[in-house]
């Protein structure tokens, strides 16, 4: 990348100010680390300086023939949030899974000369590039390892923190084993189709969550690759996406649901236009039976009209119950307000639309303004009987999601 004409310094300073303003950077030492590392040196030649220092810009570095990104330099805002989630400080031993160079350089600044940073990637092209760029930028003390992050990096363990920068559908035992007691794991974890960067602290054989951030990451390759399960309806123009559990019903039955009855319920719950419904999505995904995500071809006008405004064309919470399914919809009583509703198809449409609507009302009443859920990760063999919340079972782990109890009337100020 050419830096002949414009210096990157003002852009770097502006990036850090913006990251602070948006709450992505909270500590001074994190700001100092982001100020010191020249991010543009880790971007491909064709990247403009403005793009390199744009807080939201993901810079693609490798993609497949069909255009799917398989490697990138992640956006500064999520890199900053994740190093904050991990609580990285001087002297720590840190493992980054998924390399690019820039994030490892920021971590190298944070851990300082007495710390240790290892970055591991499954792709030799990525590790070669990261090694070269780190050397050129003066960060040759970052150890770059070629390998499947599923196994962690036993030759450099234990670690005070592990930061996973690729979407993980599970938590393999190596990550827990290679962390010190009280150490942090931060990973973009996919649970019931929704991916959030979750920060955990290790407590014995468990991980207990301490933070959660919205994020999007490229999919894991190698032994930890877990494809999503798609159920096509209407010749694939509507799709239901499952994750850990397959579709509980024969897909043909659900395709016929379109002709077997429909229902629409409005909840009276409103959100501001553009307001995040992150906790609602997580609430529905973790508590609703038969939870899945609906997507559809939004350019098909007839179909879009029939579906009547799902809250998203690519990731709309839905539930399946036997021969019927329901999903979240919206309408706009005015320009600034969106009312949430549920629409259902199938013989059981009325009941299912009401069930989903009741869950939305419960979120609004009990959890909308609360701290959100706490996740605890147990080994897959843990006895589910003793666990105190909805359990999602994966290959390696059980995840228990506990939503805080809403304050009772007797707690109200008098
Ligand atoms: C978003 S990029 C990493 C970005 C990087 N941390 C940065 O500096 O911004 C994700 C990387 O994860 C890598 N990856 C995918 N599966 C992996 C696995 N099983 N083990 C290690 N790396 C993996 C990909 O090759 C890709 O380079």
Verbal overview:
By secondary structure, this protein is an alpha+beta fold. It folds into 2 domains: about 10-225, Rossmann fold (3-Layer(aba) Sandwich); about 230-365. The chain is built from 11 helices and 19 strands. The strands form 3 sheets. It has a 10-stranded mixed sheet with strand order 5-4-3-6-7-8-9-17-19-18. A 7-stranded antiparallel sheet has the order 10-11-13-14-15-16-12, with helices on both faces. The chain is globular and about 65 Å long. It binds S-adenosylmethionine.
Quick structural gist:
The protein is built from eleven helices and 19 strands. The chain has 414 residues and is α+β, with helices and mostly antiparallel strands.
Features:
414 residues, alpha+beta, Rossmann fold, ten-stranded mixed sheet, seven-stranded antiparallel sheet, globular, binds S-adenosylmethionine, protein-L-isoaspartate (D-aspartate) O-methyltransferase activity, cytoplasm
Secondary structure topology:
Elements: H1 9-21, H2 28-36, H3 49-52, E1 59-63, E2 69-73, H4 76-86, E3 93-97, H5 102-111, E4 116-121, H6 124-136, E5 143-146, E6 159-164, H7 173-177, E7 179-191, E8 194-203, E9 206-214, E10 229-233, E11 238-242, H8 251-257, E12 262-272, H9 278-287, E13 291-296, H10 301-307, E14 316-321, E15 324-334, E16 337-345, H11 349-367, E17 374-379, E18 391-393, E19 397-402
Parallel strand pairs: 3-4, 3-6, 4-5, 6-7
Antiparallel strand pairs: 1-2, 7-8, 8-9, 9-17, 10-11, 11-13, 12-16, 13-14, 14-15, 15-16, 17-19, 18-19
Helix pairs in contact: 2-5, 9-11
Bound molecules: S-adenosylmethionine.
